[in-house]
Amino acid sequence: MAVTESAVVPVGAPGESEGARDTGAGAAERARAAHEGILRRQSARESAARTYARSLPIVPVRARGLTIEGADGRRYLDCLSGAGTLALGHNHPVVLEALRKVLDSGAPLHVLDLATPVKDAFTTELFGTLPPRFAERARIQFCGPAGTDAVEAAFKLVRAATGRSGLLAFTGAYHGMTAGALEASGGATDVRVARLPYPQDYRCPFGVGGDRGAELGARWTESLLDDTKSGVPLPAGMILEPVQGEGGVIPAPDAWTRRMREITRDRSIPLIVDEVQTGVGRTGTFWAVEHSGITPDVMVLSKAIGGSLPLAVVVYRDDLDVWQPGAHAGTFRGNQLAMAAGTATLAYVREHGLAERAATVGARMLEQLRSLAAEFPCIGDVRGRGLMIGLELVDPEGTPHPGPDGPLPAAPELAAAVQRECLRRGLIVELGGRRSSVVRLLPPLTISDEQASAVLDRLADAVGAVSAAPPGDRPSGRDVAPGAEGPP
Fold first, then answer.
1. Predicted TM-score of the model (pTM)
2. CA 314, 317, 323 angle in degrees (round to 5)?
3. What is the dihedral of CA 162, 163, 169, 175, to 10 degrees?
4. Three-class DSSP category at 261
5. CB 21 within 8 A of CB 30
6. Cα distance between residue 285 and residue 278, in whole Å
């Protein structure tokens, strides 16, 4: 197991010179004070919309690969990876070199949508990684810098191309935080998008799971579209995630994905595939659509394509390109540094077979986690694809629903406690899924076998600690470390 505590000299107080720093216990105390002060000021100054800062009260000051070093001198294994953004981990040498090259060249950093050698190299590399049948007729739209901007652009695109307005999305979906993207996500409250059942085994909406559950979902989709009294007119498009990430790490069956492609093609409904989190090797193929072999009409890409910097694009079939100049724009759609970092990342993943590496390491981790689930009844399900992995925490003493063989109730308090225990052991994990009951692992694709073992050891220790604690003594997940912010 890797060492939890950092051996590096802790960061001193702001303005302190290197020679003036204390050593030993004094330096550690000053580092802790600086760490706690930064967290207190964050709590006092930043919006109540903070998320990760609440459950992960750390102050990163240095990072490399899988490892983050905090201002308090501790070292962490980062299995959050910027919510999947860091395909190569933190500060990979090829990314840093690409950034230095642009900075040293004197190239403009802000160019709106003008053509540049940097953009040309990025587009060429990106198109070279796309599924060939898709790439041969593809156009690209550079959007605002976040994935949700690309989702909004995709919606505008298919509405303009079809002359229709409605959209189809799936239960459990997550497509971003802007208004239109939220309407298509699972947490929407003002629903103007038709919802379809997303197939899953553990909590199948039809209570059967497997191929039968996926088939029932496909039949429901066909019925909704073909029944003239369903209340759902022919939509402008359908958007789906090949693996639902925020929805709880739920991979779509390949056969079901192919059915969705057939259903949409037969009815002239553009199919939008959201690859914001699943792309660039994350699931074991370069793009997750390659598992099923489908050719979508539109792909939404962000996160890892920018090599850790903000970048988002929509790539789509050329006959959908009916926009007038300026129909969709964004001031920061010409981020040259992000394009350079993205080119380096895409090329490195391709040249070093990191998608195949993700498939191999991910399969091994899933196998070991399923053994862990057999040991601890509080793990209801283990699932994932490649290095996109989730463990659903359940109440082992709860009543199965809908019947004796059904799933146990979700246990968000146990998931939060596991996340907290992981952090104490120097492991950063994310929560997601229904009721935030799924512990998620999104390590960089460069994770070594030894690091993967260390991650699993720490996670197993955390699950064991939570399982062994009497129910009244388990951390609630709202407890915070000294110096961190309290509950909202």
1. 0.90
2. 70
3. 90
4. helix
5. yes
6. 9
d(CA 419, CA 434) in angstroms, rounded, equals 16
Residue 287, token pair as written in the block:
């793009």
Cβ 413 vs Cβ 378: under 8 Å? no
What single letter denotes the amino acid at residue 457? D
Report the amino acid identity of residue 129: T
pLDDT winner (highest mean) among 36-45, 222-231, 269-278: 269-278
Amino acid identity of residue 355, one-letter, is A
Q: Is 282 helix (H, G, I), strand (E, B) or coil?
A: coil
* C-beta of residue 153 within 8 angstroms of C-beta of residue 314: yes
- In the numeric block, which tokens belong to residue 318? 């050329």
Which stretches within 387-472 are classed as H helix? 412-424, 449-468
Q: How many other C-beta atoms lie within 10 A of the C-beta of residue 240?
A: 24
What burial class does residue 226 get, using C-beta atoms within 10 Å of its C-beta: 0-12 exposed, 13-18 middle, 19+ buried?
Answer: exposed
Is residue 264 packed enough to be buried (19+ CB in 10 Å), middle (13-18) or exposed (0-12)?
A: buried
User: What does the block give as tokens for 46?
Assistant: 């930043």
- At 442-479, the pLDDT tens digits run 999 999 999 999 999 999 999 999 999 876 665 443 34
The two structure tokens encoding residue 78: 């980062």
Q: How far apart are CA 474 and CA 443, in angstroms?
A: 27
Q: Look at residue 131 and give its three-state secondary structure.
A: coil
Q: How far apart are CA 183 and CA 225, in angstroms?
A: 19
Strand partners, 431: 439
DSSP 366-393: HHHHHHHHHH-TTEEEEEEETTEEEEEE
Give the contacts of 190 (CB within 8 A, at least 6 positions apart).
183
Distance CA 445, CA 288 (A): 15
Both tokens of 260, joined, read 């969705």
Q: Residue 401 CB: number of other CB atoms within 10 A?
A: 12
What are the pLDDT digits (tens) for 331-365?
899 999 999 999 999 999 999 999 999 999 999 99
Q: What distance in Å separates the CA atoms of residue 61 and residue 270, rounded to the nearest whole number?
A: 44
DSSP 19: G
Cβ atoms of 167 and 175 within 8 Å: the answer is no
Q: Which residue, 269, 288, 311, 1, is CA-closest to 141?
A: 311
